[in-house]
Amino acid sequence: MTELVLTAVVLALAVWMLSKQLRQRSAGVAVTTPTGVPCMLKAPGRRGGFRPGRLAVGAGPLVWKPSLGGRDVALPADLAHTATRPAGPEEAKGVSPRARIVECASADGTWLIAVLPEELEHVIGAVRPATAA
Hints:
By secondary structure, the chain is of the alpha+beta class. It has three helices and eight strands, in the order αβββββαββαβ. It comes from Streptomyces genisteinicus.
């Protein structure tokens, strides 16, 4: 019985901490202070799968900062959101099966940003929509 109570307390604390983090991140985006949205990026013409990192949204150009070291990637200024879709079977192996893929077009090619549903509105809000020609 003691184990159940202890497990419930730990679970409640974990949920409280995660919800607090999400509220703080939402508040940071609302006042346009730069904050990082966890996501995975696949650049056009790059071999391999998605790379984990954070998308710095807020004032200024979009910059993706890798989690595992390496250089920051400045996303193109002409980047435009073209579609949002669930991760396909092959993509779900490298990213979370719950992830949504935000497809963006630029002069360089198609950029793919994999993001969890909780963070989707932050990424879509940061990338301008494609204009119909």
